[in-house]
Specification:
The structure is a single chain. The protein has one domain: Alpha-Beta Barrel (TIM Barrel), CATH 3.20.20. Helix content is 45%, strand content 15%. The longest helix is centred in the middle third of the chain and has 16 residues. The protein is globular, with a radius of gyration of 16 Å. The two termini are 25 Å apart.
Length: 226
């Protein structure tokens, strides 16, 4: 049995929609502070503002990188990581190069992830690797986990919330069995109810990517698409 505060402490609250304004960012920052979530996950352009808005609170700033397709060149991803760190980010959620992975170029994918990890870990910033797992078979999910671990990443994560499908218990089961003893696991996408959030925590997830945080923590159900 989880308390609302315990679940809140596992949530990276996503503020990632393209149409979100500065005013939306302000409102979501206040929501994050009020609920005491782990972090507010923002677009790279919003890191500095988010750090200012959350200053003095327990809520960390996380951000996405090469979002949502993972298709930026590795040197661009490394530069994005450096810029986000300078702006005050505590954790980075990078998108794996999905096309290269599906092409079978696993060494490219490993080096691409490591380019970000090397920059981030030099500043004690954790890296989560978003697989966009709905594009993958369960065997490919396991392989992507192994590559992320080889590259030194801290978390594996299912979804951007902008691709096909969402997190599923099957995906999380594969992630836990493959790297759960070595990495942290983050389901994201489709977590819109308290029951769904708690079920992933019971399964062994360490963090939750949630856009519908108020609905989840209030025990209602959201109609949001993330």
């Amino acid at each position: 049995m989880y308390t609302r505060n315990e679940v809140a402490k596992t949530i990276d609250h996503a503020v990632l929609k393209a149409e979100f304004t500065d005013n939306d960012l302000n409102q979501h920052a206040q929501l994050c502070i009020n609920f005491g979530v782990y972090s507010m996950c923002v677009k790279p352009c919003d890191v500095k503002a988010a750090a200012d808005l959350l200053s003095g609170s327990s809520v960390k700033v996380s951000c996405v990188l090469s979002f949502p397709h993972g298709a930026d060149a590795s040197r661009v991803k490394a530069f994005q990581a450096k810029a986000a760190i300078e702006d005050g980010v505590a954790e980075i959620d990078m998108v794996m190069n999905i096309g290269k992975f599906l092409s079978g170029d696993h060494e490219y994918v490993r080096r691409d992830i490591q380019a970000v990890v090397d920059v981030a870990h030099a500043h004690d910033v954790k890296v989560k690797v978003i697989q966009e797992s709905a594009f993958l078979t369960m065997e490919q999910v396991a392989k992507a986990c192994e590559i992320s671990h080889e590259a030194g990443a801290d978390f594996v994560k299912t979804s951007t919330g902008f691709g096909p499908g969402s997190a599923t218990p099957e995906m999380i089961d594969v992630m836990i069995k493959t790297v759960g003893d070595k990495m942290s696991i983050k389901p994201s996408g489709g977590i819109r109810t308290w029951e769904t959030a708690v079920s992933y925590l019971d399964q062994g997830a360490d963090r939750l990517g949630v856009g519908s945080t108020q609905a989840v923590l209030d025990g209602s159900e959201s109609n949001e698409d993330y």
